[in-house]
UniProtKB/TrEMBL annotation:
The keyword Transcription does not apply. GO terms for molecular function: heme binding; indoleamine 2,3-dioxygenase activity; metal ion binding. Keywords: Heme, Iron, Metal-binding. Residues 1-24, 357-383 are annotated as: Disordered. It holds the Pfam family IDO. InterPro entries: Indolamine_dOase, Trp/Indoleamine_2_3_dOase-like. This is Indoleamine 2,3-dioxygenase. GO terms for cellular component: cytoplasm. The keyword Ubl conjugation does not apply.
Length: 515
């Protein structure tokens, strides 16, 4: 039987010596460091979903003013009373938060309230976020390695619970804790939560594949690639269930606007003004000093020590709004997208699927001068919208992806195997076919995802006559509606060319077989 390693055995062996077998060169793996899942806040069974304990459902008593607003989020939006309620909030201290789950819950709560505050319901956008929201949201996001904007982490990772705590981790038993609007939105989140769960077995299998590569243990490699392939196929099966309970019209007109950010927003061309968040706060929370939860684990205590690689470029501003001078900073952030799923990034990186600079958008500067390139081959990474999405992942999960980039390349190994006839041809054939099955699975996932995006965004954008908010006066519809009619990604991408590029790049990773 091939050796499928337990997380504990992997952890013990996480730093491996150079391979004693010299037949395959493994040139870039002289001193391979293979990441251990638990060092990156990844559960061995449930992957990127927080588990043991699961996400917190309510913050401690001190934070009731936030929780009470969240309880009534939808009614407050409908009544047009959310902004008034937020303006009455006290500025609560975030250092009262203690456990990791409390920080995560605080981020979820502030993200829902913050997005509701900015976009309102059929109201003009709010350009200034009051200090009682802006400062804690910024600090909590900084602590978790996230950004003070709604992200995949807020609406998916930290937002699930199990209906029956002893039941299965799938769509028959997941529930979401919070939405802006109701059931269609809940289903939208549930699908992603269930894809995280379906894909979770791939994560220990990826780590086991890396060990198998270093040990040149082909049976173990085949067995673990099979687990990866099956997980990818399961992700796709879950994703296409989106159609069952998420109505495209409701999604496009009612839900999606709340998930938008302010990076390329025509309504917020300068971004959002965060009252009370001054540039000095950028350096406030170095993880070693202020992040006991992650800092003590030593996640960042390596030579790539770069927990928050994207420092926001901001200036200290005093701006006058409605005759009152307030201090703070304008900040631009993209909105929530499943493109921020660390699972899909991990699969891409582990399989050596490379994404090149997005052709249809202006190339952004590198995320950080220290950001490693796939497998450490070059100092200047190519930047694609997909890479930019990493800014919006929890810090440890982003670090895991960087760690995978520094680990041995499964694809290079498979390629060398195919070109080394001295190896057992039947076995090397099996390895390469299983590797290609993984790549083809990723391609199929992206094909089906394109169809989902066409249904939920492109078709909806074309149906101009069916635009929602018909009860809203023309003037207050204008910009919001114009913007929602554009079939663009939350990061401002030209959607379909970007997604097609991403799909086509996936196929390029296939290894060539003789037959
Ligand atoms: C109604 C359902 C969905 C819609 C409308 C949708 C829409 C989009 C859009 C507009 C993008 C472009 C990038 C961006 O805006 O940031 C994107 C990217 C992406 N989405 Fe979705 N998505 C949906 C469901 C999902 C699900 C369930 C997953 C599964 C995890 C997923 C995974 C991804 C990934 C990985 C990307 C990055 C592009 C890539 O890797 O090829 N999406 N999606």
């Amino acid at each position: 039987m091939p050796d499928i390693m337990t997380p504990e055995s992997l952890r013990k062996q996480s730093r491996l010596p150079s391979s004693p077998l010299a037949k395959l060169s493994l040139s870039h793996t002289d001193d391979p460091v293979i990441p251990a899942l638990e060092d990156y806040d990844i559960h061995p069974v449930h992957g990127f979903l927080p588990a043991d304990p699961p996400p917190l459902q309510r913050l401690p008593e001190y934070f009731e003013p936030w929780e009470k607003i969240l309880d009534d989020l939808s009614p407050l939006l409908i009544a047009g009373a959310l902004r008034k309620a937020v303006k009455q909030l006290p500025v609560l201290a975030t250092d009262v938060l203690s456990t990791k789950r409390e920080w995560q819950r605080a981020y979820l709560v502030l993200s829902f309230i913050g997005q509701g505050y900015v976009w309102g319901k059929n109201e003009d956008v709010a350009e200034v976020l009051p200090v009682a929201l802006a400062r804690p949201w910024y600090d909590v996001a900084q602590y978790l390695g996230l950004k003070p904007v709604i992200t995949y982490a807020a609406v998916e990772l930290y937002n699930y619970r199990l209906l029956d705590t002893n039941g299965p981790w799938d769509l028959s038993n997941f529930a979401v804790m919070n939405t802006f609007t109701g059931p269609d939105e809940a289903w939208f989140y549930l699908i992603s939560i269930a894809t995280e769960s379906a894909g979770a077995p791939a994560l220990p299998a990826i780590v086991a594949c890396l060990h198998a590569v270093v040990k040149q243990d082909l049976p173990a490699l085949v067995a673990n690639l099979k687990i990866v392939a099956e997980a990818i196929e399961d992700i796709t099966k879950v994703m296409v269930r989106m159609y069952e309970k998420n109505d495209p019209h409701i999604f496009y007109h009612r839900v999606r606007p709340y998930l938008a950010g302010w990076e390329h927003s025509s309504e917020l061309p300068d971004g959002l003004f965060y009252e009370g968040v001054l540039p000095a706060r950028e350096t406030l929370k170095s993880p070693s000093e202020h992040c006991p939860i992650y800092g003590v684990k030593g996640v960042y205590a390596n030579k790539f020590d770069c927990p928050y690689p994207v420092q926001d470029s901001v200036e200290n501003l005093a701006t006058v709004f409605a005759g009152i001078k307030i201090e703070g900073t304008y900040r631009k952030y993209a909105g929530a997208s499943a493109g921020q799923s660390s699972l899909i990034h991990s699969l891409d990186v582990a399989l050596g699927i490379l994404h090149h600079p997005t052709k249809s958008t202006k190339t952004s500067p590198p995320l950080s001068p220290t950001e490693p390139h796939a497998n450490g081959k070059s100092s200047k990474p190519p930047i694609n919208h997909i890479h930019e999405m990493r800014k919006y992942m929890p810090g440890p999960h982003r670090e895991f992806i960087y760690a995978l980039e520094r680990a041995p390349s499964i694809r290079d190994f498979v390629n060398e195997l195919v070109n080394t006839p001295s190896y057992d041809p039947a076995l090397s054939d099996e390895v390469s076919r299983m590797y290609n099955r993984c790549v083809e699975g990723m391609r199929a996932f992206r094909d089906r995802h394109l169809q989902v995006v066409a249904t939920y965004i492109v078709v909806q954008a074309r149906k101009k006559k069916e635009v929602g908010h018909l009860d809203v006066p023309q003037a207050s519809q204008s910009l919001r509606v114009q913007q929602s009619l554009q079939a663009r990604g939350t990061g401002g991408t030209d959607l379909i060319p970007f997604l097609k590029q991403s799909r086509d790049e996936t196929s390029e990773a296939r290894v060539q077989l003789d037959i």
